[in-house]
Each structure stands twice: as C-alpha cells, then as structure tokens.
Amino acid sequence: MKHCAGQIKYLVAIKELTEKNDQVRCVNISRHLGVSRPSVSKMLRCLANSGLVYEDFCNSVELTPEGEKAVDEIFSTFGEINIFFRKFLKLPKDEAYEQSVRFITDFPQDTCERLKKVVDRTLSKKKT
Fold first, then answer.
1. Burial of 52 by CB count in 10 Å (0-12 exposed, 13-18 middle, 19+ buried)?
2. What angle do CA 22, 57, 31 make, to 5 degrees?
3. What is the Cα Rg of the chain in Å?
4. Fewest beta carbons less than 10 Å away: which of 15, 80, 122, 126?
C-alpha cells in the first residue's frame, strides 16, 4: 500500500512512541516530530480517514489493524537498511537507527526494497 511521506513519518512516530509509552497523545507526537499540534491533528484526521488510526485520537492515538499492517510494510526493509548503516557505513547503533528511520520515511518503498536486496546479496556472498 502506498502512503505519502508525511503519513509514513507519522506512522513511524506512532510506532516508536507506542513502544516507549502505554498511551500516545497528540502532544507526544508533536514533540517527537518537532511539528505543531494543529499539524498533528490535521495528519491524524487524514490517517483516521484512511483507516490507519482510530477515529477517537483526541485522548490517545492507536493504530488500527490496517495501520499496524502499514507500519509492518514500512518496516519490512528496516533490518537490512539498519545493517547497511551499521556494518557498511560503520555508524554507531543509535545513529544507524536514526538514519534507517529517516531512509525508510524519506525514500520510496521501491528504493528501500532495492537497497534491501543489495544488502542481502552482499551478505550472502560474504557467507560463501
């Protein structure tokens, strides 16, 4: 499923914040992304209209099953991209994570898939 870059950034932010906290609120997303609260509300309305977050996002933001599936698709290439930044570019763990998230949110999904294949092929060659 194709999502715009803004949707991807918000879905990733919701996933990251959910892993850190029990309850994700608009203010948490605003701080996490460095955007205004009205911007968060506008994007959450868009995500709710797309069926990716539950409609009642004023108190707590939760991904719907479709939203969970979208996040899983977004992160399907994360492991290999993170390996690329850690092992190929020798970035520290935290920086590699940040760069990986930035990559999967800013680059088209097909570019992420292509990098994943390159990393997989390179790692396969090293094993033989």
1. buried
2. 65
3. 16
4. 126
